Amino acid sequence: MKSLVREKDEISEKSAPRRLHIVTFGCQMNEYDSQRMAQMLMGRYCLTPFPEEADLIIVNTCSIREKAEHKLYSLLGRLKGLKKRNPALKIGVAGCVAQQLGEMLFVKAPYVDFVMGPQGLYDIVNIVKGLDEGGERLVRVDLDNDFDIPHVEAPLPKKGEVRAFVTIMQGCDNFCTYCIVPFVRGREISRPSEDILREIGSLVDQGVRDITLLGQNVNSYGKKSPKGVDFPGLLKEIDSAFPDIRLRFTTSHPKDLSNELIECFGRLETLCEHLHLPVQSGSDKILKRMNRRYSRAQYLQKVEKLRSVCPDITITTDLIVGFPGETEEDFRQTMSLLEEVRFDQAFAFKYSERPGTAAARFQEKVPEDVKSRRLTELLKIQNRIGLEQYRRFENRICEVLVESFRDSGITARTRGNHVVNMEGAGGLVGQLINVYIERACHHSLIGRIVH
Ligand code: 5AD
Ligand code: SF4
Fold first, then answer.
1. Three-state DSSP string of 172-231
2. Closest ligand (CA of 346)
3. Burial of 282 (0-12, 13-18, 19+ CB in 10 A)
4. Dihedral angle, C-alpha 194, 195, 198, 200, nearest 10 °
5. How far, in Å, is the centroid of ligand 1 from the Cα of 65?
6. Mutation choice for ligand 2 from 28, 172, 293, CB with most ligand atoms inside 8 A
7. 83-89-92 Cα angle (round to 5)
8. CA-CA distance, 62 to 59, in Å (whole number)?
9. Which helix (H) or strand (E) holds 232?
10. How far is the CA of 113 from the centre of ligand 1 (A)?
11. Which ligand is nearest the CA of 278, by number?
12. Given ligand 2 and candidates 181, 188, 221, which is best to mutate, with the most ligand atoms within 8 Å of its CB?
């Protein structure tokens, strides 16, 4: 959970006298959406980090895993007290949980003023304006499949931020059986490439040097608009328009990782040697039940191709343990896949049943204690492998981009997305420097500047 704050001095008190507080749960896409809402409301509100001084509080929710509703209601319970003290306070719930609950949310939280799904955020100014003018509480959760993502000026990064995210598409048509995303974010919709390039341009003008393109399934970019560019085409356009940036993307579906895209890693200078490629399971039986539409062998083949084009590429992944029907043997298959691929990092989750998804109706549920045991076992193996992978950088010189400065130390990032900590001055933020890697830790490296 994060609060979004921009520096107050950048916003004119005169034109934006009221205060907005945004709480964000979940993924980078939600963070980005929160920034967009803040930006669209900037004429009416300035941001505050303090909920108690806000005139409007927006909770941007996530429902991908865990007890999202429970988390939301306990936060709303706290906000209810604020509203008692300040009856003029408006509270809005946005994002994926809002999409799922719709009007139902008012039953448990009648003091909420608006509920709006992820597509509603582009209408936030009208929604807030309506409420300010004394309008009734409202719900905006229709999913429009022919929706066009409107152009909004780039969300402003915080001052001095070197890294930024840019949404290129939203929604998902894949319907993996465990996943709520296609239900709450609707069908795949791509942004026009001109908008994306314009947004990257303004981020670069503000000093951003490392850009991550975001989408639930970036490989499907542009597939529904035959006249526009596809994903490799978009990468090429960005690469030639902004030759000095570092470019990354997430998330990529293994079934759609084409040879053309793999070759981009060898060809495009700006494209960093880093790919997040969620595998979810190492068992063919489970992959089938998950509706992932690739086999273990096909996944391994793609990894091999990636490494032949780009030997040093960092590959990270997502895994789910305890999917319905996962036997001990299936789990062993996942464990052996970890040994075979040797990911730099893996994000592993216990399967969490999402109401309305196909898997929620599957039999052979795995008990919680078995899920927990498998998760612990998996993380233990992956921690070892991850550290071994990070050790390959020891005693090497890497080019890193410095991102931040704190207590006489700087934090930087390699092209392969490894975080490097070292001694250094604040003036280096935003610069590319060479560092000698002295030691690998879990999830980071320790280095020294090479003069
Ligand atoms: N249970 C557990 N993990 C899930 N993920 C998505 N849905 C679920 C679920 N129902 C994980 C997947 C995905 C990541 C973003 O979250 O691993 O790649
Ligand atoms: Fe969910 Fe699968 Fe779509 Fe990813 S590709 S968002 S896991 S349905």
1. CCCCCCCCCHHHHCCCCEECCHHHHHHHHHHHHHCCCCEEEEECCCHHHCCCCCCCCCCH
2. 1
3. buried
4. -110
5. 6
6. 172
7. 95
8. 10
9. helix 231-241
10. 30
11. 1
12. 181
Let me know whether 161 and 125 are in one domain: no
The pTM score is 0.90
- Mean pLDDT of successive 10-residue segments in the chain (451 residues)? 48 62 92 90 90 95 84 93 94 94 94 93 90 90 76 64 93 96 92 94 93 95 87 97 97 95 96 98 98 98 97 96 98 98 97 95 97 98 97 97 93 97 94 97 96 83
DSSP secondary-structure letter at 343?
-
User: Which pLDDT value is given to residue 398?
Assistant: 97
User: Structure tokens of 27?
Assistant: 């993924």
Looking at the structure, tell me whether residues 118 and 50 fall in a common domain: yes
Task: Please report whether residue 152 resides in a domain.
Answer: yes
Q: Is residue 443 part of a domain?
A: yes
- Residue 128 confidence (pLDDT): 92
Q: Which domain holds residue 187?
A: 145-272
User: Could you say which of 241, 272, 303 is where a domain stops?
Assistant: 272
Tell which one of 64, 287, 319 to mutate to probe ligand 1, the residue whose CB is within 8 A of the most ligand atoms: 64
How many helices (H) does the chain have, and how many strands (E)?
Answer: 13, 20
Are both 65 and 31 inside the same structural domain? yes
Query: Rounded to an integer, what distance in angstroms lies between the CA atom of residue 313 and that of residue 357?
Result: 34
State how far the Cα of 234 lies from the Cα of 48, in Å rounded to an integer.
Answer: 36
Contact 39, 33 (CB under 8 A): no
- Is 331 touching ligand 1 by the criterion CB < 6 Å? no
Compute the distance between CA of residue 394 and CA of residue 438 in angstroms, rounded to an integer: 6
User: What is the total count of domains within the chain?
Assistant: 3
Predicted local distance difference test score (pLDDT) of residue 14: 47
- Crossing angle of helices 328-341 and 296-309, in 10° steps, is 10
Q: Which atom of ligand 1 is nearest to the CA of 27?
A: 15
Residue with tokens 């894949």: 174
**Residues 205, 114 within the same domain:** no
Q: Nearest CA to 185 among 170, 168, 165? A: 170
Structure tokens at 244: 């000095």
